[in-house]
Amino acid sequence: MRRVVLASGNKGKIREIKELLKDYEVIPYTDLIDKFEIEENGNTFKENAIIKAKAVGERLKNEIVLADDSGISVPAFGGIPGIYSARFAGEGASDKDNLYKLIEELKKRGIKKTPAFYTAAIAIYTPYGIFTTHGFMRGEVIDEARGDKGFGYDPMFIPKGYDKTLGELEEEVKKSFSHRSKALSLAKYILDII
Ligand SMILES: O=c1[nH]c(=O)c2ncn([C@@H]3O[C@H](COP(=O)(O)OP(=O)(O)OP(=O)(O)O)[C@@H](O)[C@H]3O)c2[nH]1
Ligand SMILES: [Mg+2]
């Protein structure tokens, strides 16, 4: 079975990507080398995904390396936190810190619910160059956290067509139409030819 190395330190992402790439042996890069700091200083999800895939790919020999850069955007607030989703509550912030910071942004404006979307950019480092794909998921964010499934902002995100948050819905539901699933299903076309 072909091996794909993940350039990620996020346990929630690693779990979901393993689940979505069942036909591959998926391992986090930290199974092969020590964890190191990667500065995500790109201006887009795509740039940051490329930075991560390249940083890990260049330290390994002959490995296909896949990176995911993702986040949530709230159009009513100018698209925040967007590419800053992981550091919204500050450098080194936890998922919970970031979740409650976004809930605060709704509360301080007296908003109970507003449209939002997730973006995932996937970059694949290969012997033939770096390839990228994107996926999106639409929905709404609410001013409270409900449920404990998923990760990150999931407890405050209600996908379009549902009345429960991704914290409450079965993981299979998220898997069937998430930003990550869509980006990865495109990424499979690339993985399949290399
Ligand atoms: O509730 C969520 N459900 C999701 O499906 C999801 N996808 C992304 N995010 C959030 O967006 C940021 C990613 O930042 P990010 O791409 O830099 O990843 P990261 O720094 O956590 O790990 P790494 O892969 O860079 O090592 C983090 O705050 C995540 O919580 C999600 N939150
Ligand atoms: Mg990151």
UniProtKB/TrEMBL annotation:
SUPFAM superfamilies associated with the record: ITPase-like
Keyword vocabulary terms for this entry: Hydrolase, Magnesium, Metal-binding, Nucleotide metabolism, Nucleotide-binding
Active site: D69
UniProt gene name: rdgB
Assigned GO CC terms: cytosol
Enzyme class at the top of the EC tree: hydrolase
One Pfam family of this chain: Ham1p_like
Any one Gene Ontology BP term: purine nucleoside triphosphate catabolic process
Binding annotation for substrate: S8, G9, N10, K11, G12, K13, S70, F151, G152, Y153, D154, K174, H179, R180
Enzyme Commission number, as recorded: 3.6.1.66
UniProt keyword annotation of Transmembrane helix present: no
Family: Belongs to the HAM1 NTPase family.
Cofactor note: Binds 1 Mg(2+) ion per subunit.
CDD domains: HAM1
UniProt-recorded name of the protein: dITP/XTP pyrophosphatase
Protein function: Pyrophosphatase that catalyzes the hydrolysis of nucleoside triphosphates to their monophosphate derivatives, with a high preference for the non-canonical purine nucleotides XTP (xanthosine triphosphate), dITP (deoxyinosine triphosphate) and ITP. Seems to function as a house-cleaning enzyme that removes non-canonical purine nucleotides from the nucleotide pool, thus preventing their incorporation into DNA/RNA and avoiding chromosomal lesions.
Co-factor requirement: Mg(2+)
Gene Ontology MF term list: dITP diphosphatase activity; ITP diphosphatase activity; metal ion binding; nucleotide binding; ribonucleoside triphosphate phosphatase activity; XTP diphosphatase activity
Assembly mode: Homodimer.
Species of provenance: Caminibacter pacificus
Catalytic activity annotation: dITP + H2O = dIMP + diphosphate + H(+); ITP + H2O = IMP + diphosphate + H(+); XTP + H2O = XMP + diphosphate + H(+)
Annotated residues for binding of Mg(2+): E39, D69
Keyword Lipid metabolism: no
